[in-house]
């Protein structure tokens, strides 16, 4: 797990993390975009504009969930950790 402050999230930082984890430039990087409470879709991060979109899409989230893969992911939708609510 990597912790990076939102203002420091840049395309270069993400590619550096990808490299540190042993992934190559041809491997795929995605983020999970929540579409329902416990379901998300995988959105590719290929360009700097995708990083800006990712930050906008996740501005209400506490964490941004990234997925690294050596093969292109085609499964849609994917599960996401459900939002935690206080007990009543």
Description:
It is a single chain. The chain has 88 residues and is α+β, with helices and mostly antiparallel strands. The protein contains two helices and four strands; from the N terminus they run αββαββ. The protein has a four-stranded antiparallel beta sheet, with helices on one face. The model has no long low-confidence stretch (mean pLDDT 82).
Give a quick summary of the entry:
The protein is of the alpha+beta class and 88 residues long. 23% of the residues lie in helices and 22% in strands.
List the topology elements:
Blueprint: H1 11-20, E1 28-34, E2 39-44, H2 48-57, E3 66-69, E4 78-79
Antiparallel strand pairs: 1-2, 1-3, 2-4
Q: Uncertain regions: pLDDT < 50 for 5+ in a row?
A: none
Rg, please?
A: 14 Å
User: Would you give the CATH topology?
Assistant: Ubiquitin-like (UB roll)
Count every helix, treating DSSP H or I runs of 4 or more residues as helices: 2
| Spatial order of the strands forming the largest sheet | 3-1-2-4
- The sequence of SSEs as H and E is HEEHEE
Fraction in helix: 10-25%
Features of the shown structure:
88 residues; alpha+beta; Ubiquitin-like (UB roll); four-stranded antiparallel sheet; 2 helices; 4 strands; globular
């Amino acid at each position: 797990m990597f912790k990076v402050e939102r203002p420091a999230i840049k395309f270069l930082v993400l590619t550096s993390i990808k490299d540190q984890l042993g992934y190559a430039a041809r491997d795929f990087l995605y983020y999970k975009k929540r579409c329902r409470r416990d379901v998300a879709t995988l959105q590719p991060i290929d360009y700097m504009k995708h990083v800006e979109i990712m930050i906008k899409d996740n501005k209400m989230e506490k964490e941004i969930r990234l997925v690294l893969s050596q093969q292109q992911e085609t499964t849609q939708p994917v599960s996401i950790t459900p939002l935690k609510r206080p007990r009543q």
